[in-house]
Specification:
Layout: H1 9-29, H2 51-62, E1 70-79, H3 83-96, E2 102-103, E3 106-107, E4 110-111, E5 114-115, E6 127-128, H4 134-143, E7 154-162, E8 165-173, H5 179-197, H6 211-223, H7 226-237, E9 261-267, H8 270-282, H9 287-303, E10 307-314, E11 331-338, H10 345-361, H11 367-374, E12 388-393, E13 405-409, E14 421-426, E15 435-441, H12 447-466, H13 480-488, H14 503-513, E16 518-522, E17 525-528, H15 529-545, E18 553-557, H16 562-573, E19 577-581, H17 587-597, E20 601-604, H18 606-609, E21 618-620, E22 638-643, E23 653-657, H19 658-672, E24 680-682, H20 689-699, E25 705-707, H21 710-714, H22 716-725, E26 730-733, H23 735-741, E27 754-758, H24 764-773, E28 778-783, E29 793-796, E30 811-812
Parallel strand pairs: 6-7, 12-14, 16-25, 18-19, 18-20, 20-21, 24-25, 24-26, 26-27, 27-28
Antiparallel strand pairs: 1-8, 1-13, 2-5, 3-4, 7-8, 9-15, 10-11, 14-15, 16-17, 22-23, 28-29, 29-30
Helix pairs in contact: 1-10, 3-5, 8-9, 8-12, 9-10, 9-12, 15-16
Length: 829
């Protein structure tokens, strides 16, 4: 390479670096010391299959009707076509390459290649096809599968669409060809047709070997242990690598991967293409390395893994004897990215570059041999080692230059996909804009999802080019449209309840409206709204005398029963915030909770009061009554304090205001349709926020609250008997509790109208069991941490299962917003 004196200094430096890099790549691909030349196999040696061919043969046997490994080629021909010369040229090419006239029948379950004479290949008559029907005609040619036992792995068809207008379709099976082979085929056909058109005989240089000779040489090298050295490098390089990408899909992954695919071609953009090339030059890499690193960053974000494998094909023609052969030489490399330690873009590109060079240097191991050596678990739901493929074409496209004709490649596809997602980038040095061919499995993804992935890839590429010194963890992922969408729903997207009020104020309305209606039912008796209010007044007066007022926490220690409701309402009426204490807690934990919340008193039943009498002042639930109290409690005062389970460390206190809970109740009723006067049953601990739903939904709606004892709630027969005796309209519980109850096999364990599941993932199998017993029951799934006032997301469970592992969580209630973040608290797509 020479650089003209007129070239600018930066341009000269860029070209110099590119030349050095090409030399390094060439060295990585070059034949290594001790490698032997490929010669013809001994006379009489049988035709055998290469490693790649054996895999393709077994795939063909497994799915004989699949066109997934068809390689379609369509060329539009304009001008005076000599049909006879074209047919003769095609026969000459097939005669020249033995692999194109080899059959692959099965003998005792093993492939037995059979070389056919040149006369076995025939060119069918020209078909008349209307110009507008050519795309359909080409698709039919491309999608027709091969019967490799009876049909040569090349199929040719010629259509006449009008005067001086023809379409040539050549479909190859991958067992006999690869992408490089198309260029060889184009050159040979061009030379042969040109010679015939000139009245001569095609005289192409004799091929030193045939593809079967290469397969024989490959087998000999394997027998001599030559491949073992490279295989040892690969097994070490891939040790411990995750071989399945946990990328979210639009539909569940089927047990057996399908081959139906779709495809779209999108431009990378001239400006972005230039920046990718410039970044590659600056960091002594190639555009392939930059694109691969960016794709691995995107997949890392999708999966949450810093260890990502992506596949990439390589021509595999490491010897000069292979260059002019048609055949399946392409090999596939598993390229591993290490994103640990939060490297800079520059550091990551150097890592990816070094990994790529190492893979090129050990490319002689057939992919199929590597898979066998790694002894991966066989799983038909996905391809082994990797599920995403990246291919970068940086060589000029092959040309059919048939004498006297204008020729043009025409896009055609088999509508199949071999991998979950494939990206084929055309990086033609003569073109300013790279293009990306996206192919995906349609049983996993929809087109908008794959286009989003491309959008994330371009976002990462732009950020990498803008600042090579940036940390990979700081690179943005979301597109501008996604960022605008998130900004539009940020914060309180939908107005919630804004009117002032308190929980006990809502209960008081029902005391005034329906004083004689039953408010609470427990194993210690039942209370009307008037009785509940009068007893709560007595508790409130004692607490006020102890100095309790707004925002002052008060412990509540009682078994599930009517007394529990009295204590809770009494604390609220005094202006305090109740702190529920489950009697099953050890005394030490109860003391810790009281201290941690800063409680000023405890309300307890007489039989439990002794457990806290030495800690704080105690108000006993004796059943006394009193006249109403008048304490001004603002809507922003605390109504309760709950402690989390401590699953992420030390339990922490969560304080909830009246207005928070009023907003939740409004959202609950709006989302579920729960009506006035409905009865609810508390079947779980009152010391967790899940139980408060049943309590307040009943008492603030004029319904009856059933407080089941722990023994009744956990005994399936007793639970069913309770619901047979009492008309409970609605219940909220965790799915694991529901699963235990359903063991009874009877609808008696289910409420009359509404069942809400929360606190755990709800499986579709559990939903189906409920629906089998009670198809009319309204079933909801809700979610929300204690910090967000019980549940802030919810949805009615669809009538038919969705293609998701579990029931969705739904959308936020009014007055709430929700964002999904990754482990670094970055918004995800």
């Amino acid at each position: 390479m020479t650089v003209s004196p007129e070239a600018s200094s930066p341009e000269a430096e860029r070209l110099r670096r590119q030349e050095l890099l090409r030399a390094r790549l060439a060295k990585a691909r070059a034949r290594r010391p001790g490698a032997t030349a490929i010669t013809r196999r001994p006379d009489g040696a049988p035709v055998q299959l290469s490693y790649a061919q054996r895999r393709l043969w077994f795939l063909s046997e497994y799915e004989p009707d699949s066109p997934a490994y068809n390689i379609p080629l369509a060329v539009r021909l304009r001008g005076g076509l000599d049909v006879e010369a074209l047919g003769e040229a095609l026969r000459h090419v097939v005669a020249r390459h033995e692999v194109l006239r080899t059959l692959y029948p099965s003998v005792d379950g093993e492939p037995a290649p059979l070389l056919e004479p040149a006369a076995a290949f025939t060119v069918p008559p020209v078909e008349r096809v209307a110009d507008e029907d050519l795309p359909w005609w080409l698709a039919e040619q491309a999608r027709r599968p091969f019967d490799l036992a009876r049909e040569l792995p090349i199929r040719v068809a010629l259509a006449e669409a009008g005067p001086d207008h023809h379409m040539l379709s050549i479909v190859l099976h991958h067992i006999a060809a690869d992408g490089w082979s198309i260029g060889v085929l184009a050159d040979d056909l061009t030379a042969a047709y040109g010679a015939l058109r000139a009245g001569g005989t095609p005289r192409l240089a004799e091929l030193p070997v045939q593809y079967a000779d290469v397969a024989h040489w490959q087998a000999e090298r394997a027998a001599e242990g030559v491949v073992e050295r490279d295989l040892a490098w690969w097994t070490e390089a891939l040790r411990g690598a995750p071989t399945t990408l946990t990328v979210p899909t639009d539909r569940p992954r089927p047990a057996v991967a399908g081959d139906r695919g779709a495809r779209v071609v999108v431009p990378l953009g001239a400006g972005r293409s230039a920046r990718v090339r410039a970044l590659a030059t600056e960091l002594d890499a190639t555009p392939f390395v930059v694109l691969l690193a960016a794709l691995q960053v995107v997949l890392s974000r999708y999966t949450g893994s810093e260890d990502v494998l992506v596949g990439s094909p390589i021509a595999g023609r490491t010897h000069s004897e292979m260059e002019r052969l048609v055949g399946c030489f392409v090999n596939t490399l598993a390229l591993r990215a290490d994103l640990s330690g939060d490297p800079t873009v520059r550091e990551l590109l150097h890592r990816v570059r070094d990994t790529t060079f190492g893979a090129f240097s050990h490319q002689d191991v057939p992919f199929e041999r590597l898979v066998d050596a790694l002894d991966l678990p066989r799983d038909l739901s996905h391809t082994p080692l990797f599920q995403v493929m990246l291919n970068v074409h940086n060589q000029p496209l092959p040309r059919f230059a048939l004498a006297g004709l204008e020729t043009e490649f025409t896009d055609t596809t088999t509508h199949t996909a071999k991998f979950d997602v494939s990206l084929a980038v055309v990086d033609d040095p003569a073109e300013p804009d790279m293009t990306v061919d996206l192919v995906w499995r349609t049983d996993l993804y929809d087109e908008p999802t794959v286009r989003r992935l491309f959008g994330h890839l371009t976002t990462v590429l732009d950020a990498m080019a803008a600042d090579p010194g940036a940390r990979v963890a700081t690179l943005p992922l979301l597109t501008a449209d996604e960022r605008r969408m998130l900004a539009a729903v940020d914060g309180t997207a939908v107005p919630g309840v804004t009117s002032a009020g308190t929980l006990h104020g809502l209960v008081g309305r029902w005391v005034a409206r329906t004083p004689d209606a039953v408010a609470v039912v427990g194993e210690d008796g039942a209370l009307t709204y008037a009785e509940l209010d009068a007893r709560a007044n007595a508790v409130a007066r004692e607490l006020i005398a102890l100095g309790v007022g707004p925002d002052r926490p008060v412990g509540l220690l009682a078994e599930r029963g009517a007394a529990l409701a009295v204590g809770m309402l009494g604390i609220l009426k005094a202006g305090g915030a109740y702190l529920p204490l489950d009697p099953v807690y050890p005394d030490g934990r109860i003391r810790d909770l009281l201290t941690g919340a800063g409680a000023v008193a405890v309300v307890a039943t007489p039989e439990l009061a002794g457990r806290v009498a030495t800690v704080l002042p105690v108000v006993r639930l004796t059943g006394a009554t009193a006249a109403p109290v008048d304490v001004a409690v603002p809507a922003d005062a605390l109504c309760y304090v709950l402690f989390t389970s401590g699953s992420t460390g030390r339990p922490k206190a969560v304080a909830v205001e009246h207005r928070n809970y009023l907003n939740y109740l409004a959202g609950l009723r709006d989302r579920t349709g729960a009506g006035v006067g409905w009865s609810w049953a508390l079947v779980s601990t009152f010391a967790a926020d899940l139980g408060t739903t049943n309590v307040f939904a009943a008492l603030t709606g004029g319904g009856t609250l059933h407080l089941m004892s722990r023994d009744t709630a956990t005994d399936v027969d007793a639970f069913a008997a309770y619901l047979r005796e009492y008309p409970v309209d609605a219940v909220k519980l965790v799915p694991s509790h529901l699963e235990v109850l359903l063991r009874a096999g009877t609808a008696d364990v289910l409420p009359r109208r509404l069942l809400i599941c929360a606190g755990e993932p709800l499986r579709w199998e559990l939903v189906e069991r409920v629906r089998a017993l009670r198809p009319d029951l309204v079933l909801h799934n809700h979610y929300g941490p204690t910090e967000t006032t019980v549940s802030m997301l919810g949805t009615a469970v669809p009538a038919e299962p969705l293609p998701t592992p579990s029931v969705p969580l739904g959308r936020p209630f009014a007055g709430a917003g929700a964002h999904v973040l990754d482990a670094r608290r970055r918004p995800v797509p």
